Each structure stands twice: as structure tokens, then as C-alpha cells.
Amino acid sequence: MVDIIIDFFIKVYSSVGLQGFGIGLVLVVGSVWISLFLRKKLNPFRRATSLYEAGHLKRAFSLLLLELEKNPRNKQALLMRAEIHIQQEEYSDAERWYYRLIGLKKPGDGIDTFDIKQRLLKPLYHEQKLLDLLNLSKEILHTEKNSPPALYYLGLLYMGQLYYREAKTILDRLISARPRMHEALFAHAVALLQLNNAEEAVNSLQRTIELHRETVYDLGLSFAYYLAGNYAESKNILTAVGPHVDRFDTERQYLFALRLLAFCDIRLGIRDDAVEIFRELYEIVGERKKSHISREEIKLYNEFGRMKDKKKEGKPAEGVEDSVAGDYYKVKEFLIEERRGGGMTRESLASTSRFKDVEGLSSRTWAALDLGLAMVKAGRFEKAIEFFMDLKKSHPELVGLKRLIDLIPRKEDTGGGEKSVLPERMDSGKSDKAAMELSRYLDAWEKGGMRPYGLILIAGFSTKKQLSPLVMFRRSGKFSLDL
Questions:
Q1: Tell me, what's the pLDDT at 234?
Q2: This prediction's pTM
Q3: What's the per-residue H, E or C state across 387-447?
Q4: More confident: 201 or 392
């Protein structure tokens, strides 16, 4: 285009002679400048870069497609495309283009293949390609033993598999190398809570929030205070955050915050408020589409993460996936603690005989139990009995509900005023025994209602696949970061 314009003005210059020299020169210089300006403006990659840096991702992406259609091996353009997919949480597409970059043998273009491999860890983690993630992390750490991305995602991988001590070891090394990496500090605190070290987790979360503020960090700190027994401070943080769905990144975080607030009130003796919060929770989860989960559909994962349930057209039955993962982790958590010293084997993973009543309780079922037990705790016995009687019909999966109902006291007019008695006018000895059993039931609910594993779920650190211990550990069953 430039040559055509220059030839045109040379012809004009020739026709006007020396008298038009000045005019011709100005026209030629002007034409070159205009052409260069248009080239810069019309260059898809340069324009895409400007738009990307300004945060206009969709417009930048459209221009990148034009550039890659013309120059499919432009590594800078490929990298930008992958980064846009990452920012838009399109992890499968990002993974594809990172692999494309790694596969290009052309040197130069300012692209570091090692850096691309580190970037690839994030989409592999979010895509739950855990074995690929494990192997790539180890490969990177062979080259750079303190690689922050490799240590971070390897730590999350071990934590998602419930190997909390190993995850803490990995994150300890990461924090030593990057003490101001708030994501690592938060993950470290979550691991500490799983190891029942709430006090140290509080300190780690306070450091996290000093560096960076996110709602999930505040929620984590509140939970750490709760597990440390400081229920008043836990509630203060939740109140400051504001228990409204718009204040949280996900609905799961919001529901977790509501439930935590209710248990804070239970622990602080503000039981009527707790009942109302649990009632709100029950109404929220009740608005969701109900899905029946039969006993036959609830199966554990096998050792390599495949589902053993009956599938239709290659898909698990509706509502099964979350409950299966939950049941699997209940079993695995027990087995890890039981057999940590001797290493994990296929036989130990199969030893689930102690779990006779593994049920896939839905969130609505848990909310129903919370509400009913909170009413008992608040002394609303008749309301609780009526509520549990309805639950027997709507939630047949709640084994042992009839026994619970029989333990709840009832009000009876004895002439000298109302008093609490047990059904069927039990004698004093049986009444005391039933009261103790109910007290133990409520105590177990209070203590176990908010378990540390809940923070793994709301933080997004959980995994729905399991890897064999044979690939997570050495043959000896021992863990070491000396890869």
C-alpha cells in the first residue's frame, strides 16, 4: 500500500516539475506517515495488546482471532489468548492453548516454556486433572525446588485428598520462600484447621487479611475463632461482613456464613435467634429443585476416582455427585488417621466395614436436622416433635429419627403447672436415662455441627476425584518433598 501511494505521488511530482517539488515532497512524507499510522492502528495484535492492557478482554480476543488466523505461530498472541481464557475462567480452553505454546519448537518471541508450564498448573487444578497436575508439579520442582505455583497447587492437591500434614509441609516451604503470598497463607491456615490447630490458624489468617482483603478470608478467620472457642469474636466478624448473599462470592459461602452464625448463637446461649437463622437456611435450600437419592445410587469412589454408581447415558444420577464425594471423604478421613503410621494400601482403602450407615444427606436434610435440634435446644419441644414427625415422611433417609422423637420432652399439665416429661409417662429412672441420651445427642450436634472440612469446601480446595496413595507417596508409604 505504501509503495502504491509513493508511486502515485512520484508521478504527480514528475508532472509538475521543479516548481512542485515542495508540494510533492510534503505529499510523499504525509502519505508515508498516514500509512504507518494506519498500519499501527490496523495491526490486530498491537491493537489487541492495547485493549487487553485496558481490560477490554472481549474486544482484545476478537482481534487476537484475526491475528492468529494470519500468524498461527505468534507465541505472544497465543499466550495472550490463554491468559484471557484464564481470566474468564475458561480453564479447558486455557489448558489447550498453553499446551499449544509448549509444543511450539520455534525459539524466541520472549516466551519461556518453563513459565508456561507453571501457568498451566492453574487450569489443570480447576479441570480436576489431578494426576497431570501432580506429575507437572513434580517436574517443575525438579528444576526449581521453590517454584511458588508448583508448591501452591501441589499443596492444594494434597489437602484436597485429605493429606493435611503433607499439605502443611508443602505450604510451609512456600511461605518461607514467599511470606507475602496471601493465597498461600490462607491455604496454610485451612490446613492448620484440619489439624485442629485453630490458634495458629487464627494468626495465619490475620496475616492473610493484613496483606489482602477478601470475603472468604474474613469468613475463614471467623471460623477459626469459632473452632478456637471464641464464639463472640467469630460472631463479631460475621456481623461486620454482613450476612447478606450479595456480600459473598458464592451461595455456598453465604449458606456457610449463616450456619456458622447460627451455631455461634447456640454456643452463646442466644437460642431463639439461632432457631430463626436455621429456619431461614431451611427455607433457602428448600427452594432448590429436589432430587431423590436412593441407597443404591450412593456408592463410594473407587481407588482411581471412577464412580461405581449406575449411570444413564454416561452421566451420574442427578444429585449423586456431591453426596458421593462427601461419603467418600468421611471414610477416607477415618482411614488416613487410623493407618497413617503404616502407610496406605489398596486393602486399607477398602476397609470400610465400620461405616455401616453411609448416607448421602442433601443440604436440605442437614438444614432440617439443624432446625429441629435448635428448636429442642431452645425448649420448643412440641414444635420440634411436630417438625420431626413431618420429617419422617419427607426425609425417609434420616435413620433413627423415631428414636430421637421419643427422647424429646413434652409439656404436661400436672395440676401444679406445666413440666417437661417424656412420652409414655416414663418413670424417673428411664426419664433420666433418656434425658442424658438426648443431652449427648445435642452435645454431639453442637460440637460436630461445624467441622473444619467445611472450610475446604467454601474455599474451593476440595476435589471430587481421588488419587491412589501409590502415586501420592513413595512405596514405603512416606511423604517427602525431596523429589
A1: 97
A2: 0.76
A3: HHHHHHHHCCCCCCHHHHHHHCCEEEECCCCEEEECHHHCCHHHHHHHHHHHHHHHHHHHH
A4: 201
